[in-house]
Each structure stands twice: as C-alpha cells, then as structure tokens.
C-alpha cells in the first residue's frame, strides 16, 4: 500500500482553496484559472513532472503534467477542473481554507480542489514509494467545467490516454454514469392589439400556458428510468413576454432545461416538443409556437466490466478492505467528453457538502482515502 503524506496533501488542498479561481463565464470580471495554473505548474514541478500549458481562453490555461513511463504499460489520465463557482451567497471568508474537526472549508474545497488534492496525494505517494511506471501517468487540470467545459474540450484534442480517473466529489463511491442536459427555447406567437380588442389580439402568454402544462405532463408521464440516474426531467428556467398592461402580448419566450439519461438523444427531446406544438396547433385556435435548441451535452455511462472500473474496484477492495459502492450523478460532468474522445472514465472523489452553496467543505479523511485508492489504481493500471 502506498503511504499518503497527510500533512503535505492537506497543504496542497489548503493552498489551492486559498486561490480565487472563480469562472469568468459565470461571474463577469472574475479571476479565472490563471493564478491556480501558476500554483499547479509549481506543484507539478515540485513532484518532478514535465509540465505543459494549453490555452483555453486568454489567461485561462489547462495544466498538463506528465510522468513518462518506461514503456509497455497502459497510460492513465488523472483529471479534474480548476474553476469554482460564485462566492456571492457564501457565509464567512470563501477562500480562508480553514480546517475544523477534520473538515476543510471554502469555495471549491469539495467541488473540486479536494479531488485535485487526492490526485497530488496519490502521485506524491507513488514518487516517495519509489514507483517506476511502465505506462505514462498524465495529470490534466482543466478550466471552465462549471460553464462550457472549454478546458476538457481542449484537453482531449491533444491528450490521449487508455483510461481516466476524474476526481469530482462522489463521497469515495465509484460513479459510472451521469446525466446529460439540453437547453431549449419555446416561443409562442401572439398578435399585439389594444387590450380592449379581443377580436384582434392573440394572447401569446396565455398560449404559453399550454406548453407549461405539457412540461408538467412530461415529468409525470416519463416512461423510462435508470437504475443509477432515476428518470429524465424537465423544468422551466426563465420566462419573458408582454408589452404593457393594456396590450395583448405578441410573444412569450420560455427557456427550459431537460436532463437526459445516457442513451437519450437531443433529437428525441426536440421531437417531443415539435409533436406537442403540432398537436396544440390542431386543438387550440390561433395557437402558434416554435422550439429551438440552445445547447446540448449528452449523458455518460461506462460498463461495470470495463477494465478501468475493474481496476478501481480491485484497488478499492485492496486499500479500504471493503467493496465499493456504485453510483450515478444526476449532474453533468466532463466524463462524457473524455468518453467520447475514446478515454474510458470513472469518477471517484472525496465527500463533503455544500458544492455551489453558502457553506462548502470537504472531508479531509476522504481526500486521503481517495488518494490511497487512486495511488493503488494507478500502480495496477500503468504497471
Ligand atoms: Zn465539479
């Protein structure tokens, strides 16, 4: 078993949490991932890795570090995102990285600098233990997961690996599936007219009510569900419309989000709305609407029998003397981008609470447990 240096791993984590890396895609003018990239370059060099930067946007680089193998083994990518979400709603100093009763607090401590610390803890243990890899060990620290994932999109253009471990928070469970999502805009067309002229005006907002009811019935009538991911879902996100108190509204726009199972397609959701609009047009006088897709990211699933899942399963049993639990995440992750690029990926990271919330913390013991499992998995995989 590889000996994790708890003090050093805690220091890695604390230093990362203390660096503001708020995603500027989410918060205009925010710091971005530049400062944390500088820290990551230093930390990777301290461990003896070769480091390379990939520009994903001005001042927002991915950091890619390599521990070259002697040859004949499989390569493994250890990866996670370096950006964090807004701190606006947080109580206390979001970047103090304070340690209390085995919990380390701060924005990004759980999502997901705790996971990044597990990666550092693991590779530092392998280095200290005199491990010599046959396959390459690659560390990929990526930008922008919390917004558009330009980081992983850029990473997979240049970096190839036989498998990946993504250390998003899972409470040390093996996550082998996550949902996809799709943003759509529904627009109803009315006809503007003086509020008194019922014979001329067409009420676009009232017509949107029909589509809102269709949204509700989508949720109550979903015929499918997934053992790890529950059912697909849809919700209304933003709505706008209307011209004034005494005017029939000419248009109403509703932006919605669907959350999809891994085997569902964007086309199937579009078909649901196109069909709904056609049906309503035949039933409701003067009903007219359109649907457009604004953004889509598919879901992901990896087979339990896949070699990288089996390796993590074995490493988990070896290190923690227990069978791992398997889970799916309702939230979207970068795993699907890695999977689609031909890199089979499993997600395992420490637990805690408050990702994106007012108080966020990671459980330090989990950071160390994940580091141990990852170190063992790396050793078994790369040989
Ligand atoms: Zn995350």
Q: What brief labels describe this structure?
A:
34% helix, alpha+beta, 17 strands, 4-stranded antiparallel β-sheet, 2 domains, single chain, Aminopeptidase, binds zinc ion, 9 helices, 6-stranded mixed β-sheet, Alpha-Beta Plaits, 383 residues
User: Which range does the strand content fall in?
Assistant: 15-25%
Shape: elongated
Q: Looking at this structure, what is the CATH superfamily of the largest domain? A: Zn peptidases
- Biggest sheet: strands side by side, in what order? 1-2-6-3-7-15
Domain module count = 2
CATH names the topology of the largest domain as Aminopeptidase
Output the CATH class name of the largest domain: Alpha Beta
Number of helical segments with 4 or more residues: 9
Query: Ends: how far apart?
Result: 15 Å
Rg for CA atoms? 24 Å
CATH architecture of the largest domain: 3-Layer(aba) Sandwich
Describe this structure in words.
The structure is a single chain. The protein is of the alpha+beta class and 383 residues long. It folds into two domains: 6-178 and 299-382, Zn peptidases (Aminopeptidase); 180-297, 2-Layer Sandwich (Alpha-Beta Plaits), CATH 3.30.70. 34% of the residues lie in helices and 23% in strands. The chain contains nine helices and 17 strands. It has helices at 6-17, 34-46, 109-128, 150-158, 204-221, 266-283, 307-320, 335-340, 364-382; strands at 50-55, 61-67, 76-81, 99-100, 103-105, 137-142, 164-166, 174-178, 180-189, 233-241, 251-260, 289-297, 300-301, 326-329, 345-347, 352-353, 361-363. The strands form four sheets. It has a six-stranded mixed β-sheet, with helices on both faces. The chain has a four-stranded antiparallel β-sheet with strand order 4-5-17-16. A four-stranded antiparallel β-sheet has the order 10-11-9-12, covered by helices on one side. A hairpin with a 7-residue loop joins strand 16 (352-353) and strand 17. Helix 7 crosses helix 9. The longest helix has 20 residues, at 109-128. The protein is elongated and about 85 Å long. The model has no long low-confidence stretch (mean pLDDT 97). The protein binds zinc ion (ZN). Zinc ion (ZN) is lined by residues 81, 111-112, 145, 168.
